[in-house]
Amino acid sequence: MKIGVIGSGSVGVGVCNYVLTLGHVRELVLYNRTLSRAKGEILDFQHTSSLTFSKNTKLVATDDYSDLKDADIIAITAGVQIQEGQNRLDLAHANSVIGVEIAKELEKVAPNAILIVVTNPCDIVSYFISSNTGYDKRQVISAGCVVDTARLMSIVSKRVGVDPKNVFGYILGEHGNNCFTPKSLISIAGQPADYYCASNDLEPIDANQLLEDVKNAGYEIFKYKQNTTHGVSASVFRIIQAISVNEHSVLPIGTLLSGEYGLDNVVLSLPCVVNADGVQTVLTHPFTGEEKEKLFEISDHLQNVIQDVSKTSGLRMHSSNGEYNLPKNDTRVVISFDVATSTAAGVIDQTVGKRDLLMNRSKNIMDSFRISAARRLTTTSSSRVNSSILFDRRSLVPSPSLLTSPLTSNGEAKRRRNLPFSSSFRRSNKVGTVAAVLGSGALAAIVSYGS
């Protein structure tokens, strides 16, 4: 097996250190833009070969992507580093551009590799790599919440006095401030956490406080040493190990979603089966209504970041059929469909200087459809539609499985129901019309707006 690591910072070097303990790695390649840094690390590692248990792994330092030819697994750790006072999402624009540039180079020499994205914000960077390269979504893995989950287990183990390996649970969602832990999934020594604590005269676990402690853990480390290394490196190695020996392990990693849990066109961490092909499947769990709502909130938050990065960086957003990626300005229509069948059409015409809502209903399907919510469109002084009241882009992006309805009476993004549909997406450059055609029926909702 050939493994590559992009970036010779503390995490990249830490990953190399763990990888060398695997007995089946024939070649390890450390790529760094500054070759001397990679050479120094590899030379240092070479002096460990007689002292550690590993096969005679070939060690390569390089600043040439061609040395990664036919790599099986590549961990991407390079990027702008977080500074004190910043959060991971502050790095979204710069690191998304860097991540996509790296992935495009890797695609030329290692198109079959599985990419593990560690560069923060790893969920956003993974999304844009999936959207702007030819890698299958199963091949692009966000390191996601594996390290957050490890922190959860460590914190719980200290509170109840057992080995972390006897604690089970997940941190899910975004690797960052927008994550959550389903308390129903936390167990200690095979028992639900509440039951274990009650039967052993321990204080019950406060899930909210636990989550805050997990969120703050990385920043606490950063306060003392200005980076986080060991936990992140070990979590990346855990993913590499699962892939390299085809484990079929369940890990809370991020992958591009296509309808799972009603979420589409976003990368966030959920329990996934990881094997030699990358992400085999996203597991289904009966989350509570509150937990599902939290997933939707996290998805909406990440979608907003994705849209902002796309507009400012020129990076494409995901298109499931490859025909067209969403334009980078805000052109979304505020309509929530509540339909009995899977036919609807929403059209935005930017060239008409009115605000009209025209609904045509074919007589034979009149009773099959109704528009359940439509909000008044407003425009800014520059005649651009205010993004806060526009239809969720996800419903305009072609998707094989889901339509989401994001409106509520107070304008917050909520999903009314999920509807299966077939879709096509097109843009007419001549008239500036964006059309999302869902299904093949006669109902059309047309909104025109302008100054």
From TrEMBL:
GO molecular function, one term: L-lactate dehydrogenase (NAD+) activity
The protein's name in its UniProt record: Malate dehydrogenase
Annotated region described as Disordered, given as residue ranges: 402-421
Keyword NAD attributed: yes
Domain Lactate/malate dehydrogenase N-terminal: 1-141
Keywords in alphabetical order: NAD, Oxidoreductase
UniProt key word Oxidoreductase: yes
GO BP: lactate metabolic process
Pfam families registered for this protein in UniProt: Ldh_1_C, Ldh_1_N
Residues in Lactate/malate dehydrogenase C-terminal domain copies: 148-310
